[in-house]
Amino acid sequence: MPTMAAKIVHTSIDRDWKQVYDFASQPENMQQWASGLASGLKPDGEDWIAEGILGTVRVRFAPRNDFGVIDHTVTIAPDVRVHNALRVVPNGNGCEVMFTLLRLPNMTHDQFAADAAHVLKDLQALKALMEN
What we know:
It is a single chain. This protein is α+β, with helices and mostly antiparallel strands. 23% of the residues lie in helices and 39% in strands. It has one domain: START domain (Alpha-D-Glucose-1,6-Bisphosphate, Chain A, domain 4). Strands 1-7-6-5-4-3-2 form a seven-stranded antiparallel sheet.
């Protein structure tokens, strides 16, 4: 597969990065800020199951770590897996939350832009939760 176009979508949050990581990395909390997982995640072995506009998807998260990595692989179909790179990194007394959005094959420019806007909206929802 050729290298895909990528866009880093990020927001600054005025809260300690470890507190943001602790909250954001818990799959049980994602329905509060990640609208693509608004139906919630249900545990299934090492994976989590979500129901959404794409149907039933399987999500596997990186193990908890000291580096702020919340990467997760979403399996949409047996042969369709999307790696989502999500990071929380320190920035002074606060942090940056960054999502690497990949432009998937056959995705139009408008679809890619809409995905980026959707991710930004989710990160801003996380920001609102963390700063209030």
